[in-house]
Amino acid sequence: MNKDLFLIIWVLLILLTITTALVSGSALSTTQAAILILGLSIVKFLCVSFYFMELKNAHVFWKASILFYVLLFFIITISL
Q: To the nearest 10°, the Cα dihedral for 25, 29, 30, 35?
């Protein structure tokens, strides 16, 4: 794996974390902030899963399982 790619993903994760903190203190409504924070968290989860846990080299079943779980989690959380 290219070490530069790991660095880019790590910086992206840091930026997403800072963005999440800024969104939590913003003037957005509670619902809008929650949806945005949840979306940022999903992106962070997928970055960690696919790059740092090497899921991108896994069998298609595991990739599909993670994506299905994330989609299901997002839909259930938003609908509540």
A: -90
Q: What separation in angstroms does the CA of 62 have from each of 11, 45, 59, 80? A: 26, 14, 6, 27
The tally of domains found in the chain comes to 1
**If phi over 0 gives left and psi between -120 and 50 gives alpha, with beta otherwise, what is residue 72?**
alpha
For the entire predicted model, the pTM comes to 0.83
Express each pLDDT in 35-51 by its tens digit.
999 999 999 999 999 98
pLDDT digits (tens, 9 = 90+) for 47-72: 999 988 989 899 999 999 999 999 99
Run of H or E residues at 8:
helix 3-24
Residue 35's domain comprises 3-79
Q: Crossing angle of helices 60-79/30-47, nearest 10°? A: 170
